[in-house]
Write a structure and sequence with these properties.
By secondary structure, the chain is mainly β. The chain contains four helices and 24 strands. The strands form seven sheets. Strands 2-3-4-7 form a four-stranded antiparallel beta sheet, with no helix packed on it. The chain has a four-stranded antiparallel beta sheet with strand order 8-9-10-11, with no helix packed on it. Strands 12-13-14-15 form a four-stranded antiparallel beta sheet, with no helix packed on it.
Length: 341
């Protein structure tokens, strides 16, 4: 028979599942598909709670700064902590399970402890748990297409590349300020650059193949706190800094092509985006072609642009609220302001 703990997940209560009456209504067609799906989704969200039968064992004493789930299998969880520990967990396969209560415990598959000044340089090979960061691990990122490698950034002013199979540091990039964020393009096919945001205003792009910093993006006035690659293009990078700016970069050319300035917001202005595009480092950057005019506006008869022209409303309720005239059919209208129908 089934094990005693089977069926006791996060949503162990059947309250989130459709009732027999709801299933019969859906089967007979009296319940609309969208309504049925919305009801189940809403009840699933209401029933969500902390798992009572799964524990992620933490083998550190400080807080957790970052968590990253791999995009390849959506299975391996990478954690970086305040006390410089790096850990990798398998969220699907528990390390041990209590056969009586069904409580599952996940121990770290990899645990890299805080390193020393001698072991922080890193290199090919190395024993398990050696060459860790000296200070807090602020960010982490998996290699997008393979779980055999991941990257971590730390307040010790370094970004490290790690071999998952040997749990060792294989490459180190050194900077002159604390590292706040790193990211890799999720679907890049032409490069494997790591974007790094540090306490310095410049954004750095590191190439793991050569081990060098290949790009330096200048534009922010304060520390760079966030970096993200666009899903639609492997060449577009977005960054956010302590100066309140969000900048978009095309790494194939110099300078940011768009700047969204948090301080450049004025109530009542309709051209805030146009103002934001006036980047001081490159002058005005055009936002693209102008939007098309309203459909069929050129075919509207000239007399309809008169101040006395009215347009038919859809119902008397609409007319009672907005209408200015009544037609013989009982429908009401409002004044025509020009443009297409």
């Amino acid at each position: 028979g089934p094990a005693p703990f089977e069926g006791r997940g996060t949503m162990g209560s059947p309250g989130w599942k459709p009732t027999a009456g709801e299933l019969r209504a859906r089967e007979s067609g009296t319940r609309r598909p969208l309504s049925f799906r919305a009801s189940v989704s809403r009840r699933q969200c209401d029933a969500a709670a902390l798992s009572g039968d799964k524990t992620i064992a933490h083998r550190w004493s400080g807080g957790v700064n970052c968590l990253e789930l791999d995009e390849t299998e959506r299975r391996y969880l990478l954690a970086g902590t305040v006390d410089a520990v790096v850990a990798v967990y398998d969220t699907e396969q528990p390390t041990k399970t209590d056969r009586t209560t069904g409580h599952a415990t996940h121990e770290p598959l990899i645990r890299v402890a805080k390193g020393s000044a001698e072991g922080a340089e890193g290199g090919v090979g190395g024993a398990r748990g050696t060459g860790g960061h000296l200070f807090s691990v602020s960010c982490a990122a998996w290699y997008p297409v393979d779980t055999g490698m991941f990257f971590t950034g730390s307040f010790d002013q370094t970004v490290a590349a790690w071999d998952t199979n040997t749990a060792s540091r294989v490459l180190t990039f050194h900077f002159d300020a604390k590292v706040y964020d790193i990211s890799m393009a999720p679907n890049a096919s032409s490069h494997c650059l790591v974007a790094v945001g540090t306490g310095h205003p410049q954004v750095r792009l590191c190439d793991p193949n050569s081990g060098n910093v290949t790009h330096t993006l200048t534009g922010h006035r304060e520390a760079v706190w966030a970096t993200r690659w666009m899903l639609g293009s492997e060449w577009i990078l977005s960054t956010g800094g302590g100066d309140g700016d969000v900048r978009l970069w095309d790494i194939r050319r110099a300078g940011s092509f768009m700047r969204l300035d948090a301080s450049n917001v004025r109530v009542g202005e309709v051209d805030a985006l146009e103002e934001a595009l006036e980047a001081p480092d490159r002058g005005f950057i055009p936002a693209g072609p102008a939007p098309p005019t309203r459909r069929n506006v050129d075919s509207v008869p000239a007399h309809l642009f008169s101040d006395d022209a009215v347009r038919c409303g859809g119902s008397s309720l609409w007319g009672s609220r907005y209408g200015t005239g009544t037609y013989g059919s009982g429908r009401v209208g409002r004044r025509y302001r020009g443009g297409a129908y």
